[in-house]
Amino acid sequence: MLNLRKQNITKWIVFLPASAIFLTFLMIVTIVVSTERTEYKKALEAARIDYVKRSKLQAKERIDKIVEYVNENEKILMSEVQEDVKNLVNLAYQISEDTYRENTRLPRDEILEKIKTKLRNTRFFNDLSGYYVIFGLDGTCEMNGMDRSLEGKNFIDLQDSSGRYIMREGLARLKKEEAFATTYEWKNSTDKAPRKKK
């Protein structure tokens, strides 16, 4: 029996340190794997955050370039529109001037009627939304190529949607300038919101 006990003790002496070493190894491996997994997750999250930041920065740079491009094109288009409007105004002026010169013996009202007849149905712009309007220096509408019911009405107190007295401003500028372009906010009855008109 003593021999059996000795054998059991020997087994325990051999088995216990080996088990302790194996358990220690398992614990160290578990700790190392857990630490590596945590570090990997942190590195992965840091890479994701860095990628998102870089992507946002690149997107912002692209958007800024697009906005710059759109703004430049808008300036070019506005310049072209202003030139087109200037040419259209010059055309109306030339038609009016020619009509006056051809009819100098007629009374003012008859000359004005001839000018109105030539300009009233003229449409311009690609969508044919442009038309001529003639105002007297007192703000009275002499001709409106879109709505005859406005003719004869005085618009000296007309305000745009932002509250500007556009007729007063225009007449005041005409006293100082031979020609000019202006922009104002306007809302037609069919419009949902005011839009810029020239």
What does this structure look like?
The chain is mainly α and 198 residues long. The protein has helices at residues 2-102, 108-119, 166-176; strands spanning 123-124, 130-131, 133-135, 141-144, 184-186, 195-197. Strand 1 (123-124) and strand 2 (130-131) form a beta hairpin. The model has no long low-confidence stretch (mean pLDDT 87).
Structure keywords:
two-stranded antiparallel ribbon; mainly alpha; rod-shaped; single chain; 9% strand; 198 residues; 3 helices
Q: What gyration radius follows from the Cα positions, in whole Å? A: 43 Å
- Measured as a percent range, the helix fraction is 55-70%
Main β-sheet, spatial strand arrangement: 1-2
Provide the structure class: mainly alpha
Largest sheet: 2 strands, antiparallel
How many separate helices?
Answer: 3
Query: What's the average pLDDT?
Result: 87
Write the layout of secondary structure elements.
Blueprint: H1 2-102, H2 108-119, E1 123-124, E2 130-131, E3 133-135, E4 141-144, H3 166-176, E5 184-186, E6 195-197
Antiparallel strand pairs: 1-2, 3-4, 5-6
Helix pairs in contact: 1-2
Please sum up the structure shown.
With 198 residues, this protein is mainly alpha-helical. Helix content is 63%, strand content 9%. The chain starts with a helix and ends with a strand.
